[in-house]
Automatic annotation (TrEMBL):
It catalyses: a 3-(all-trans-polyprenyl)benzene-1,2-diol + S-adenosyl-L-methionine = a 2-methoxy-6-(all-trans-polyprenyl)phenol + S-adenosyl-L-homocysteine + H(+); a 3-demethylubiquinol + S-adenosyl-L-methionine = a ubiquinol + S-adenosyl-L-homocysteine + H(+). Pfam families: Methyltransf_23. S-adenosyl-L-methionine binds at residues 39, 58, 79, 124. Keywords: Methyltransferase, S-adenosyl-L-methionine, Transferase, Ubiquinone biosynthesis. The keyword Methyltransferase applies. The lineage of its organism: Bacteria, Pseudomonadati, Pseudomonadota, Betaproteobacteria, Burkholderiales. GO terms for biological process: methylation. It comes from Comamonas piscis. Its EC number is 2.1.1.222, 2.1.1.64. PANTHER family: METHYLTRANSFERASE, UBIQUINONE BIOSYNTHESIS O-METHYLTRANSFERASE, MITOCHONDRIAL. Pathway: Cofactor biosynthesis; ubiquinone biosynthesis. Signal peptide: none annotated. This is Ubiquinone biosynthesis O-methyltransferase. Belongs to the methyltransferase superfamily. UbiG/COQ3 family. One of its GO terms (molecular function) is polyprenyldihydroxybenzoate methyltransferase activity.
Length: 236
């Protein structure tokens, strides 16, 4: 692999291996299907998607990309996991999703080709899987138009997150395949805020994502101690 690409080959392989299961709501991707309506509505409430040109960075099999297109956005989904992208493309054809395209390209490369081209950029559940998350944040800033919104979601790095996101989710509840996450790659909100400030993005909102294993229910609140999302804006 080209060493200048900000991607971990092992991470790409991991998600490519699971590609065929992306659109099975009872598969390893069940949590993504469950949280997608929550994050979609949060994004849409802050930056109404209808009529917008939207980029979904690290789109995987296209769960969020597809739902944003159905809200009326023209969506481009990008990823470097080839098999996952093929699944996304196939699903868009089968579901006849309007106004959606997928590209196999690094976000940094796209930022050089199409700077300030998008009204909204989303980068969800991706930063904790790349070698240099700050580079991704900078590229997202470069891709969004002045005044546009950039949304990130990731996992906090602390003992509670280790217990819930790795031990609980991967080993006890087996909601995710073992090895999905590496604790050392988790990102504290203060670190993500620093990446955003350095890139020129201004943080405006944050939300935590909570899960009750007994009721199997997710909801949003102000607790960012484990899974969290932030909304940032490019000045201008």
């Amino acid at each position: 692999m080209n060493q200048t690409v900000n991607a971990d080959p092992a991470e790409l392989a991991k998600f490519s291996e699971l590609a065929m299961h992306w659109w099975d709501p009872d598969s390893d991707f069940k949590p993504l299907h469950q949280i997608n309506p929550l994050r979609l509505e949060w994004i849409n409430a802050i930056s109404p998607l209808s009529g917008q040109k939207v980029l979904d960075v690290g789109c995987g099999g296209g769960i969020l990309s597809d739902s944003m297109a159905r809200k009326g956005a023209t969506v481009t989904g990008i990823d470097l996991a080839t098999k996952a992208l093929r699944v996304a493309q196939l699903h868009a054809l089968e579901a006849q999703t309007p106004n959606i395209t997928y590209q196999e390209i690094a976000v940094e490369a796209l930022a050089q080709l199409q700077p300030e081209s998008f009204d909204t950029v989303t980068c969800m559940e991706m930063l904790e899987h790349v070698p240099d998350p700050a580079s991704v944040v900078q590229a997202c800033h470069d891709l969004v138009k002045p005044g546009g919104w950039v949304f990130f979601s990731t996992i906090n790095r602390n003992a509670k997150a280790f217990a819930l996101a790795i031990v609980g989710a991967e080993y006890i509840l087996q909601m995710l395949p073992k090895g999905t996450h590496e604790f050392a790659k988790f990102i504290r909100p203060s670190e993500l805020a620093h990446y955003c400030r350095s890139a020129g993005l201004v943080q405006q909102h944050s939300k935590g994502l909570q899960f009750n294993p007994l009721t199997q229910r997710y909801w949003l609140n102000e607790d960012t101690s484990v899974n969290y999302m932030i909304a940032t804006r490019k000045p201008g």
